[in-house]
Specification:
This protein has 345 residues and is of the alpha+beta class. Helix content is 51%, strand content 10%. The protein has a five-stranded mixed β-sheet. The two termini are 40 Å apart.
Amino acid sequence: MTDTPSPDVAESSPYTERSHADLELGELAREVSDFARRMVPTGPRGESTSGYRLADALALQALVGRLVEAVVVTERQNYVSWRRLGEIADPPVSDSTAHGRWSPAETEWKTQRRKWLRHNVMGGPDRDDTVAERAARLDQWVTRHTEPGDLDHGPHPVTDRLDRMDPATESVHLSVLRQILLSDCPATPGAPGTDDAGLPLDLLLPLEQRQAAVDAALAAALPEGPAAAEAWHRARRSRTYAESLDTQIRSAAAQSSAPATAPRIDTVDAVYLDGPLAGQRGYALNTLGQRVGFALPPRPGGPTGEYEVITLAHQGRPASLRLIRDTPTDSQTHSPAAPSEDQKP
C-alpha cells in the first residue's frame, strides 16, 4: 500500500446530520409557501367557497406546526440549548417545558435518521446521491422566488450550505454503522453477541474499504513524526483487512453461490484506561487492535476520537481500551462560542 490518501475522500464523505436537518426544513418550508400561495383568493367572484378555505387554513396551520418542529430539530443540530429555545418561545417557557414540548420531534427525527442509515448499511440503494438532487431542486425554487431586496446567496443557495463530514467525524460515523450492522444484521444465525454471530461480508466490505480511505486521510493530515507513523500503520492495517475481506468474497463466490459470512464476532465487556472516558465501561470486539469510536455531547461539535483494544478479555476480566486519537471540540478550534451548560445530548 502506498502511503497516500485517496484524493476524493472529502468529496465523497457523507453529508453531516445538520445538513440533512437543513434540507428537510427547506423542503417543508417550500411546501408551506406553495400551500399558502394557493390560498390567495383568485378567479371570478360568485361561486360559493363552501367552507373549503377554512379547511385549507386549518391544514396550513397543521403544516406550520410541522415546520416549527423541523426548525427545532435544526436548532438542536446547531447546538442551541433547550433553555435558549424556551426563551425564544412566545410566551417564554422554561427549558424543561421546551424539552417536553419539542423533544418528541427531535427523537422521531433521530429515529428516522437511524432507519435511513440502516437502509444504507444493509445494502439498500445509496440515498446520499438524492441529497444533492433534492438540494438542486430547492436551489431552483429559492432563486425562482427571490424578491428585490432579498439576500443574494448565488445560484446554489441551498447546495452551498450543505457540508460533509471531516475524516475524524466520518471515522466515528463508520463505528456507528458497524454497530447498526451488529444489532440489525438479518443473517441466520446472526444474533449480536452470541457465539455464532456472523456478518455478511458483502455488507462489511464497503465499510472497511471506506475506513481504510478515511484512516489514510487522517494520517496524511498529521505532520511527520511518531503520531503520523502510527496513523499510517492503522491505515495500512485497515487496507489489508479490507483486501482480505474482498479476497474471501471472491473465493466464496467461486466455490459456492451461498453468501459468505464474517468470522465469529466475540463482543465483550471493556474498560477505558485513559482519555475522556477513563474508568468507564463499554464493549468491544475481543480482537487486539480493534477500534471503538466515540462522540461526546454536544453532537455534532463535541469531542470525538477512537480507542484501541490493547488487552483481550479473559476469564471474567474485561478487555482494555487505550485512547489512540482525540479531537478537540468545535469551540476549541473555531471562533463560535461553546454551547451553554444546559445543552443536552
